Amino acid sequence: MRVLLLAGLLLAAAGGFAQQYRPSAERITGTVKYLSADKLKGRGTEEKGGRKAGAFVMKQFRRLGLEPGNHGEWYQDFTFSRGKHNNLRSRNVIGFLDNGAPYTIIIGAHYDHLGTAGLFDGKYPAGQIHNGADDNASGVAGLLELARYYTANAEKEPFNFMFIAFGGEELGLQGSKYYTKAPVDSLENVHFMLNMDMIGRYNPERGVGIGGYGSAAEWPEIFKGVQYEGIKFFTDAAGKGGSDHHSFYIAGVPVLFFHTGGHDDYHKPTDDAPKVKAKEEAGILEIAVQLINNAMKVGKLEYRGE
Fold it and tell me: Cα separations (Å) of 14 from 7, 20, 21, 23, 244?
């Protein structure tokens, strides 16, 4: 009896341990609040708040036990020009989970936002803080939740994982453009790339859109049976689009793109943390986990271009 009781307690404890690594609305809220706080001043490229945001992601990657993903470095620094602005500096933040596998799944989200809009030549109100809670603190929160989920798994997955927080997205997908031109490992070794951009404003009438459905021959089979109570989704075949998955797709990599749609606060100073629906975002991440796990049951995905 005592043996059975002890076994039951151990199983319950193990179940509780595993449970804490499900996507968490509480952690999502904490991440979004930090990244979209006024003290980071909108995480603008070439602004102090943007550098702080990148450092925050790096520290979270390190805390979760990831390895520095850029040949022993956490950062992949790059410069770019946009319009009259030359030699702008930004960086990607890269964490790697090495499972000793031949192929790697890339999971990404951009951490930059408009900042105080000084680099946008009057398109947005300069001097005002654009906190970017949905765009894209919500995506970074998702990135960290998925990193936590896969680093917590005691058994090695059949694929490696690379988690990338991209810089310079708002200025023309600069971080993903740079990465696909200077990848850490050959893009031929990428199983697929999953991108999250604005996943925090779930609308139950619309559902969450998942793009890239047509970018690999196997996606229709992988999507079969995927569901999560309270969250509906629809698919879009397009691999191209206005976020970082686009750079990978045109470079020949299958992609998925999670997005909850536009809203009245898009690229405005009013995109603030209280408007992000963390519980629903956690449900969206449960769908992402199912798709990732299903995709690990098949061989390397076969890319399909337009």
Answer: 10, 10, 12, 17, 37
CATH architecture of the domain formed by 27-295: 3-Layer(aba) Sandwich (3.40)
Report the pLDDT value the prediction gives residue 155, as an integer from 0 to 100: 84
Question: How far apart are alpha carbons 5 and 255 in whole angstroms?
Answer: 47
The region, left, alpha or beta by phi > 0 then psi within -120 to 50, assigned to residue 170 is alpha
Domain layout of the chain by residue ranges: 27-295
**Cα–Cα distance between 141 and 131 in angstroms, integer?**
15
Tokens found for residue 204:
């139950």
pTM beyond 0.70: the answer is yes
pLDDT of amino acid 21: 77
Please choose, from the candidates 92, 189, 187, the residue with its C-alpha nearest in 3D space to the C-alpha of residue 143: 92
DSSP-derived pairing of the beta strands 160-166 and 85-97: antiparallel
Task: Find out whether the peptide bond into 136 is cis, omega within 30 degrees of 0.
Answer: yes
Spatial separation of the C-alpha atoms in residues 169 and 143, rounded to whole Å: 15
